[in-house]
Amino acid sequence: MKIPISILVVIHRSNGEVLLIERADKSNFWQSVTGSLDYPDEDLSVAAAREVFEETGINIQFLPVNSLQNMHHQIEYEIYPQWRHRYAPGVTRNTEHWFSLLVPDSTPVQLAPREHVAYQWLPSSEAARKCFSPSNGEAILKLFSAH
């Protein structure tokens, strides 16, 4: 069963472009990297680094120090009904913690084909509009409003 605590990582370049990835299980569902904790007391930064690597092939250990930043923002949202079966019975809400990851412009992306089928780099405002999840769009806008 999935733990109802997750991370969202907005991956971006210095020019303001944001990486969006399209889910394999839902056509035209564009998002940032997301994922649940593997165990209840898993460090959020460790979970963020793990999910980034699993979904994009980007290993933060090879990036400059402090490339991954905790945005110190969390939201609670209702889990979409079609995905509730992944959680314990009766679990309907998830707490999501936001991170950002600044990558060099030349960083290659290698998707996990079982999870995602396409990716694109978009200007932040366009990326925020394209996200299926409103909170994902909010995370992108929050990140770039701070710059």
Could you characterize what this model shows?
The chain starts with a strand and ends with a helix. With 147 residues, the chain is α+β, with helices and mostly antiparallel strands. Strand 2 and strand 3 form a beta hairpin. It has three helices and seven strands; from the N terminus they run E-E-E-E-H-E-E-E-H-H. It has a four-stranded mixed β-sheet with strand order 4-1-6-5, sandwiched between helices.
Distance between the termini: 38 Å
Biggest sheet descriptor: 4 strands, mixed
Give the amount of beta strand, in percent.
Answer: 25-35%
Shape: globular
Number of strands: 7
H/E topology pattern: EEEEHEEEHH
For the residues shown, what is the average pLDDT?
A: 95
Structural class: alpha+beta
Please compute the radius of gyration using only Cα atoms: 14 Å
The number of helical segments is: 3
Percent helix = 10-25%
